[in-house]
Amino acid sequence: MTTPPAADITELIDVIQPRLRDRDLTAIGDAVGAVSTDQMTALLDRLPVKQRAVVYRLLPKEKAIDVFERLAPRSQGDLVLGLQDAEVVSIFSDLDPDDRVRLVDELPAALATRLLRGLRTKDRELTAELLGYPSGSVGRRMTPEYVSVRADHTVEESMRRVRAGLEQAETVYTLPVLDEKRRVVGVVGLRDLLSADPGAHVSEIMGRTETATAYDDAEAAARECTGLGVLALPIVDNESRLVGMLTIDDAVRVLEGEETEDSARQGGVEPLRRPYLATPLRALFSSRVVWLLVLAVGATLTVQVLSIFEETLEQVTVLAWFVPLLIGTGGNTGNQAATTVTRALALNDIGPHDVGRVLVRELCVGIALGSLLGALGGVITAVIYEPAIGVVIGVTLLAVCAMAATIGGIMPIVARVLRVDPAVFSNPFITTFVDASGLVVYFLIARAVLQI
């Protein structure tokens, strides 16, 4: 989805807001009638919750469904709570099963149960099947509406099967090929079927494929799908039988959500899960306050270190001037290492078994960085102050960079072993830890060099 320019959306809001206040529904309907789906989605994201439902009701049904599917799950939940039961049931029944599951996760349990009861039997069974998989698994993000073909069938038979399933299937461009026990033995593209001899067997034109199990982590499966460059990835059960397909658009959506979550937590906030302007102020407050309290408590470690070495600072006051430089450099070095390793973990470039190799590599990088920064910092400090202070600063930069890079590199791996999101252990906590430990190293070096 392309995001319309903010100026265009602001103009729409300026047109609609006065009509909302006047309750001029006819004028609002005329205003939104010519608005594109992308513009309408962006408009709803920026309207207050109460006004959002009023504007949404004025959309034609087909456009309303398209707009609803493009909204973030949390925004969908907000909109559903503002609509009447009949409207909600109509929207809910028109969604694909995997989209229903995403919405159910954002709704109060009582409302979700009521909506599920209102579905047709087949739709309810398909949705319940996906809800039976663990939260965060690819089973909740796959589509159970697909068309499969048999390896021992002819191309002509397979095309009849595809035509019969066009209305229900979410995608038919990549077709899983099954054996007599419904196990995936390959895939065949629709283009290949169309260009093949009608009498040829599917087994003659199919290609090999990777699969993921329904219980696999959704992010890992999504990265596999995008990494392979396929339009859809077959999802199987523990006995290798096909249960669904992860389409490329759903895979991209999963990765976008994970990237947003990781970026937020690396910055010390919880992800909003809805557009910024549609997020209530209390939600913005709650997304930040817990992290700030945790980091504030962690920062007391730095204060404690400074109080322990108070006498050292009193004897050589110039040491205090370099505290921001040293803790800032250490924090930045640790964050760089953590970000690099977290990304490598997400892409499956490394795993917990590589902890030793990562430690050595980050230690070497930290020493190289620390040597360069230490040499520059030491020379400049020696010229401005005195050689002994330059030695302290140079050696400390070397030690802090080596320590910070090593800690920043292995902390995400430790988080993965503990089954915690590596982003949680990333920038905020590493910065706090490196600040305190870096100061300890700094003052110990100062005492040794300056003999105080």
From TrEMBL:
Molecular function GO labels: magnesium ion transmembrane transporter activity; metal ion binding
Pfam families, per the entry: CBS (PF00571), MgtE (PF01769), MgtE_N (PF03448)
SUPFAM superfamilies, alphabetized: CBS-domain pair (SSF54631), MgtE membrane domain-like (SSF161093), MgtE N-terminal domain-like (SSF158791)
Family matches, as InterPro entries: CBS_dom (IPR000644), CBS_dom_sf (IPR046342), Mg_transptr_MgtE_intracell_dom (IPR006668), MgtE_N_sf (IPR038076), MgtE_transporter (IPR006669), SLC41_membr_dom (IPR006667), SLC41_membr_dom_sf (IPR036739)
Top-level taxon of origin: Bacteria
Record's GO cellular component terms: plasma membrane
Subcellular location(s) of the protein: Cell membrane; Membrane
Membrane disposition: Multi-pass membrane protein
Coiled coil: none
Domain CBS positions: 142-204
Main subcellular location of this protein, as a coarse class: membrane
Membrane-crossing residue ranges in chain numbering: 289-309, 363-385, 391-417, 429-450
Alphabetical list of Gene3D superfamilies matching this protein: CBS-domain (3.10.580.10), MgtE N-terminal domain-like (1.25.60.10), SLC41 divalent cation transporters, integral membrane domain (1.10.357.20)
Keywords: CBS domain, Cell membrane, Magnesium, Membrane, Metal-binding, Transmembrane, Transmembrane helix, Transport
PANTHER family per record: MAGNESIUM TRANSPORTER MGTE
Function, as annotated: Acts as a magnesium transporter.
The protein's assembly and partners: Homodimer.
Family: Belongs to the SLC41A transporter family.
Protein name: Magnesium transporter MgtE
Organism: Microbacterium faecale
